[in-house]
Write the structure tokens for this entry.
Amino acid sequence: MAKVSKKKKKVRERTERRFLAQSSQNKMIVAALGAVGSAALGAGIYGQVWGHFERAEGQWVSPVVALAAGGALVLAVAIWLGTSADPAVRVGDAGVALEKGELRRMPWWAISSLTWESGNAALVLVGKDESGRDLTFKVSARSHPHAAAWLLKEADLRATDVTEVPDEARARFAEPDAHAGTVIALEPMQVVGRRCAKSGKMIAYEPDARICPRCERVYFKNKVPKRCKCGLPIAHLRDAMQGDDLEETADDDSGSHEVAEAKEA
Ligand SMILES: [Zn+2]
């Protein structure tokens, strides 16, 4: 029976999760300071507006003003302690990114090592950014527990060979929380100007590019290996339309691979 194929180009949807840093300070202390500061500030303002306190002889400031000022100061300290200076972290299809001024992103394929630094309780990423510049960053398990858990889970899948995190460290991480962070849709990948991960050939024309959906390595269409460097079988991408999602068909051995190989022989 003839196959009626509707040429529908599926565009692979790319997303990532954005995580804000949590304060590493004790939450109870921050909450207590916040409550005391707010109460004192409120009482001080109330006293100032409706109270009948007079500045006593020799006092340089009325106790009511002192109460409000003190309250504001304690509240400011609580806010300062309660917010962390660590930048926001993003984890998703495009890799790991740090919002430190500009967004610096390390794609999965560009990670050369992911290790654990027990002193700082942080995951340490060493590799390159999208433009090939050296990049190293840390994701603290204290200020970024959710981001770190997601990062480890994704790296185990997408950058298996370079992930070396000991079991003692893994024990710190709970199962990644599906509700943690904010899911952001990413732009489609820019492939023109990238080099084929197999042949080094420059991609000049978008339909020539094949993208590994696991690590986002780019291959020239007739240089696609049987397996991507990340380990995912991608031979059938040779015939696929650029952008096809092969997640479900990756381990399916029926047909398509053989067809692709027979053609080349
Ligand atoms: Zn790959």
User: Anything to note?
Assistant: The CA atoms of residues 198 and 223 lie 7 Å apart. Residues 206-264 form one domain.
